[in-house]
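quick one if you have a minute, typing this from the bus. theres a chain ive been looking at and ive put its sequence and its fold in token form underneath. please have a look and point out which stretches look like helix strand or loop to you. anything you notice is useful, everything is just below.

***
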Amino acid sequence: MVVQTIPARIRWAVDLMDVQPADHVLEIGCGPGAGAELICSRLQTGKMFAIDRSESGVDRTKRRNAKFVEAGRLTVRQIDLATLRVPVKRLNKVFAFNVNLFWVRECPDEIALLHERVLPGGAVFLFYEANRAELVPTIVQKASAALSGGGFRVSVVEQKAPAVVGIIGRR
């Protein structure tokens, strides 16, 4: 079995989220499952629900995190956020890395769903890797506006190397 590494940018993002053992976390766009692996390794009584529109992303996340799926700590589904019915009553944290939804189009319904499901004191963490520096201001402005328009208090954090920006919406 090949050991898969977790990229530094994902480690930084998950560290910034400060995942607690009892947290209930939603990951939007789980892709290869690195974020889910790191988050689930920090959960004890908490649970994680990971979604992706891509069948291959769901399959990769399930394979990479089979022990967490088997333990009942991780549920992975192929679905998009717009049609999601969150299986837990309330979420402490929402995690998304390089999910363009929040800055490429209007998404008030998705933001409203998150605001309804995130507990007071909880947060939505949107992270983007800046492969084109000129896009960063637009990403920050549009994602921040989407979150604040949905009732979240927004802050922005940047990691310098590699260039990753985090837009945090607190409820």
